[in-house]
Amino acid sequence: WPFMAPYVKAINDLKQQRNAVILAHNYQTPEIFHCVADIGGDSLQLAREATKVKEKVIVQCGVHFMAETSKILNPDKTVLIPDSRAGCSLASSITGADVRLLRERFPGVPVVAYVNTSADVKAEVDICCTSSNAVQVVESLNAETVIFLPDQYLAKYVASKTSVKIIAWKGACEVHERFTGDELRTYREADPSVQIIAHPECPPDVIAEADFTGSTAHMIDWVRKHQPKRIVMVTECSMADNVQAELPNVEFVKPCNLCPHMKRITLPKILDSLIYMREEVTIDPMIIDKARRSVERMINLKN
Ligand code: 13P
Ligand code: SF4
């Protein structure tokens, strides 16, 4: 990406002057993930790393709920997101008021929120989870029934792995819900030796076709460990580009579903973010205090 080089240099220089750290999700494009990010990972890794940050400024290269999680964990730091319109179909499917209504409808039933939710929602729930630890979080509550929100497909996946009864919200990820089992069968027919690994935000017929299901970090670990000849990673397609750089001998077959929200973050916007110190993520301090309890409760669970 030669035309990107001046941006990379300017961002890395300014990052030092601003005493800033750049956190990037696995779905960021390679020039962001490999050239300017200090820390990359899945939602759980980024939340954990956000608790250890020494710098005064965090630039979150990901979507808005991820920047909010960093702010919740670092209320005294400046958290910037290069484009605050970077949303998420899961996060926008539910509000704090919806959670209060669920609690009225199912009194005493604990509520688990996927981190793909707003700070307002995190403030209303008992504990958060990510796709890396969802089953462990649900079981940690020692309850017969748990409300799981907002991803109906992750909820179904969790329900298939535990005896806890799951009451699910009806949200979905607009990227993962587009995959179909038929599409994956076509890949297998073309090459029966191809390996297929899927994110648990996918519908059940997709997961049924997959050789492995896991969070983005678990998917990357799986590819590193098995180094298959050909692989389909059933998730946002920038991740295959990021792993390809590390594993040139693996052929990535790419059903290219892009997350339009993740793709709002670009090098020019990251540079502007550091020049103008924008867009700053702000959350009501009362909401931060309540939301932090559910995020920290998740982070403090033993691995
Ligand atoms: P993880 O990286 O935690 O698996 O989440 C995937 C995702 O869709 C984030 O938006
Ligand atoms: Fe949200 Fe899906 Fe995009 Fe992740 S990939 S940010 S879950 S819309």
Descriptive notes:
It is an enzyme of class 2 (transferase). Catalyzes the condensation of iminoaspartate with dihydroxyacetone phosphate to form quinolinate. Belongs to the quinolinate synthase family. Type 2 subfamily. This is Quinolinate synthase. Keywords: 4Fe-4S, Cytoplasm, Iron, Iron-sulfur, Metal-binding, Pyridine nucleotide biosynthesis, Transferase. With 303 residues, the protein is of the alpha/beta class. The chain has three domains: 2-87 and 263-282, NadA-like (Rossmann fold, 3-Layer(aba) Sandwich), CATH 3.40.50.10800; 91-173, NadA-like (Rossmann fold), CATH 3.40.50.10800; 176-258, NadA-like (Rossmann fold). The protein is 43% helix and 16% strand. The chain has helices at residues 5-17, 30-35, 43-50, 64-73, 96-105, 119-122, 134-140, 152-161, 181-190, 204-209, 216-226, 238-246, 267-276, 285-299; strands spanning 20-25, 39-41, 57-61, 78-80, 111-114, 127-129, 145-149, 165-168, 195-198, 212-213, 230-234, 251-253. The strands form three sheets. The chain has a four-stranded parallel beta sheet with strand order 2-1-3-4, with helices on both faces. Strands 6-5-7-8 form a four-stranded parallel beta sheet, with helices on both faces. Helix 1 (5-17) runs parallel beside helix 13 (267-276) and helix 4 (64-73) crosses helix 14 (285-299). Bound molecules: 1,3-dihydroxyacetonephosphate and iron/sulfur cluster.
Outline: globular
What is the string of SSEs from the N terminus onward? HEHEHEHEHEHEHEHEHEHEHEHEHH
Q: Which band does the percent of strand residues land in?
A: 15-25%
* Uncertain parts: none
Subcellular location: Cytoplasm
Binding site for iminosuccinate: 25, 43, 114-116, 131, 199-201, 216
EC number: 2.5.1.72
Family: Belongs to the quinolinate synthase family. Type 2 subfamily.
